[in-house]
């Protein structure tokens, strides 16, 4: 029984390491940022996921103490990875407006990467010096 | 057997961090560097967890959780700064 548990932990650790390595290699190898975004998500979900499941099996099965921390880290990473990828893609489109030329119309005045003004901002339009200097 | 797997895991993750560092220095665009740091944080979380397995202690999970939160918040703050010129409006 202990041998099987050790085998499972070892396989999960090796798989996690391999996936993290593949994700980082893809980030070096792929040609531009929007394709590069694809690779590290594999590292997030499968690489860290493998290491976390390995650690859970290790502490619950071999050390005899159940630890739930890993589920917390997994849930947090699974929740936040799409958000940060989305933000990075939007900021990249914001920095390179020429990439938006092939995309369909957004149906509003602003382009793909720029947000509208906040709805409760009703005071008369003044040129915000910070924003004006940024663009 | 776990020792060998751990050694392999440390090797693979260290190589992954080195590749991320290469992307961080190479660029070419700003968001490439942000993405490189984001991925590096994730690889570091995996390294911390493997270190916890090697030392047979659960103390390091809090560090891993803090790293996850810190990496996410810094990425989002940087992207918001690029998008809006401000982090909190």
Structure in words:
The complex is a heterodimer of chains A (135) and B (89). By secondary structure, chain A is mainly alpha-helical. Chain A contains 5 helices and no strands. In chain A, helix 1 packs antiparallel against helix 3 and helix 3 (38-62) packs antiparallel against helix 4. Chain A is elongated, with a radius of gyration of 22 Å. Chain B is an all-alpha fold and 89 residues long. Chain B has 3 helices and no strands. In chain B, helix 1 (2-26) runs antiparallel to helix 2 and helix 2 (30-55) runs antiparallel to helix 3 (60-84). Chains A and B meet through helix 1, helix 3, helix 4 and helix 5 of A and helix 1, helix 2 and helix 3 of B.
Write the layout of secondary structure elements.
The complex is a heterodimer of chains A (135) and B (89).
Chain A: H1 2-29, H2 33-36, H3 38-62, H4 69-95, H5 129-134
Helix pairs in contact in A: 1-3, 3-4
Chain B: H1 2-26, H2 30-55, H3 60-84
Level of helix content of chain A? 55-70%
Q: What does the overall shape of chain A look like?
A: elongated
Beta-strand portion of chain B reads under 5%
Report Rg of chain A. Answer: 22 Å
The domain count of chain B comes to: 1
Helix content of chain B: over 70%
**Gap between N and C termini of chain A:** 63 Å
Give the overall shape of chain B, derived from the CA principal axes: flat
Number of domains of chain A: 1
Largest protein interface, residues of each chain: A-B, 59 and 55 residues
* Residue-averaged pLDDT of chain A: 79
pLDDT averaged residue by residue of chain B: 88
Give start-end ranges of low-pLDDT stretches of chain B.
none
Number of helices of chain A: 5
Report the span from N to C terminus of chain B.
53 Å
Poorly predicted ranges of chain A (pLDDT <50, ≥5 residues)?
A: none
The total strand number of chain B stands at: 0
Assign the structural class of chain B, choosing from mainly alpha, mainly beta, alpha/beta, alpha+beta, or little secondary structure.
Answer: mainly alpha
């Amino acid at each position: 029984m202990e041998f099987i548990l050790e085998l499972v932990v070892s396989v999960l650790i090796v798989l996690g390491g391999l996936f993290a390595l593949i994700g980082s290699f893809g980030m070096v190898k792929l040609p531009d940022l929007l394709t590069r975004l694809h690779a590290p998500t594999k590292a997030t979900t499968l690489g860290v996921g493998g290491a976390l499941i390995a650690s859970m099996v290790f502490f619950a099965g071999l050390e005899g103490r159940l630890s739930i921390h890993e589920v917390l880290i997994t849930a947090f990473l699974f929740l936040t990875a799409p958000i940060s990828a989305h933000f990075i893609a939007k900021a990249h489109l914001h920095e390179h407006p020429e990439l938006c030329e092939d995309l369909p119309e957004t149906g509003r005045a602003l382009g793909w990467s720029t947000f509208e003004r906040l709805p409760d901002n009703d005071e008369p339009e003044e040129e915000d010096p910070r924003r004006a200097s940024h663009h | 057997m776990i020792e060998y797997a751990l050694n392999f895991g440390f090797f693979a993750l260290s190589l992954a961090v080195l590749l991320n560092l290469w992307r961080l220095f190479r660029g070419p665009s700003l968001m490439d560097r942000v993405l490189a740091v984001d991925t590096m944080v994730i690889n570091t979380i995996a390294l911390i967890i493997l270190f916890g397995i090697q030392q047979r202690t659960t103390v390091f999970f809090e560090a891993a959780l803090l790293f996850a939160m810190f990496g996410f918040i810094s990425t989002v703050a940087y992207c918001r700064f690029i998008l809006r010129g401000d982090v909190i409006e």
